[in-house]
Amino acid sequence: MPVSFQRVYLESAGYFMPGEPIPNERMDAYIAPLNRMSERIKRRILAENGILTRHYAIDAEGVTQHTNAQLAAGAIRDCLQRGATDLSRVSLLASGSSGGDTLMPGFANMIQGELAAQPMETHSVHGICAAGVSAIQTAAQGIELGAHRTALAVASEMPSRLFKRSRFAARGYETDFDSHFLRWMLSDGAGALLLSDGSPALAGVPGLRLKLKWVHQRAFSGDYPVCMQLGLTEDRSRGHLDFGSWAEAEAAGALSLRQDIRLLPHLFDIGIHEYAGLVRDGWVDPKRIDHFLCHYSSEKFIPVVEDLMAKADLSIPRERWWSNLAWRGNTGAASILVMLAEFLHTKALKPGEQIFCYVPESGRFMAAYMLLEVEAVDAVPTAVAPRATVVAAAMPDDDLVIAPPHDPAAAPEGLGALLTELAAIWHDYRSRVWRTPLIRQIRERRFALPDYLNWMEQWVPQVREGSLWMREGAASLSEPYQMLASLIDVHAGEEQNDFNILFDDYRKAGGTVRQIGELRRNPGGEALNAYLHGLAATRDPIGLLGAIYIIEGTGQRIVPALLPLIKAGLKLPPDAFRFLEYHGHNDENHLSRWLVAVEMVMAVEGQARAARQIIDTARNTAALYLMQFQHITERMSHEPNA
To answer: 3-376 in CATH: which number?
Structure first.
């Protein structure tokens, strides 16, 4: 749930960009290509990210011209100057950064020293892109609680020191794509905000003040492996402190900043679902947003985010978006503060306007949001009104969204509420599945052949039961549902041999169990099958559509994400993975058929009753399927069926 504020206002904002703007054609003087591969990577990345100029705090010889603390201090001075105030008012300084100039002490303390500031409370937030929002939230909470009347939030980044060509000499100027990538994406800069509990006019905007209404942050670090990191080797098996010396760590690549771009699609899943939840719970109304400040690392992601929001019926018109990525570059944690400061300096605001900020963080996946609202200085503070529930549609079926719901624009009238609730169930289920011991083994590259065979042995019996309970459910449908019964029969017919394909894959991978009936039974799988067979035997079991939603969604969205990791860790022939490949390709078609089935049910049963049955079954199926995942790694002390 977002942290709500009733007495926090933004007085002024400032930023500091070191040196002159560096256009793309002059980047090589600062961030020289390492080899022929890096030249090709550079051209590709610059063609996609939309950055035309950026700033570096090093010179062409790689010599530091400004420390990171000096960048932050410069932003604070600009912020205070614009607010026509001084540092003596400030009693709390909160900083956000992916790293200061020292490993210790904290970055906020180094900034305080750089400013020669008076004694005050300090907080150093160490993170990546969302660290700037964390600094803002820390400062705002200090004010809201009454511990401080005025606070500074600052975020500063200086990655250029990591990108100098000399950093790669120990590896012979050879490195992997993941560490090439960020050299052409990130740059230096700092931004600062002055927050207070008073109601002065916003600096440079007479008669108006800017209220911070709420901040929401949520981390999904327990769900996914590291995506962007500094300090681990390429295979993440060793940290930089595990080596005998810094030189050894550098030679092993443990001091190279990397981003695994193959994981980035999951970040869209997180961000869009969190946004949909904020809309659903009444924290934000897309129709009321006048200005959308989105921290995207590349312009390539603009149409992706825009399309997903539009399909979810949660769009903010493109003309309301604002970004300075093209001329300020991607400055990580500082980006949203630099963006907000420059936006406030250049845009005319009106009372009642809302500014919505969104920051996705790819380090180990976070999503951060802020909402600010413009008020007249003489406005009477009002109590926070009860949040109205806004019905938001679910997420689309898109290659970059790791969730099974569909495009509400193509759905029958009244289906949006159903898809929204199913999306929430899926979001929680997916998150829990990714934290199970089995998936953690796969993610952390500890998944060996015996683990794969153990999984297959327990999965085959569950898959075998799928077509059986589907046919049983179709047989239990009464006359008004005969078209639905026919559709389910088609689906069951397609899946009736799936378990044979999976069992054949198991045998090709080295499985020793010869008869399917001898395979071990998974408690979660058995509970799931018992539940679905019991439901299928009741009259008109339309709730089974909720089960299909979860099961097919698992095959379409979770299994394909695991397949590359499994293949990389197991030296098996391609035909040992036929079922996993098939699942990812065909379940998308199955889910399209699912939507047709829901339309049929809605037409016969009525929306409210049908939706409740589907939702309840989906929730129960998710819990039982999760139980199956959790039990897979529990080795039995006896032989199967012993």
So the answer is: 3.40.47.10
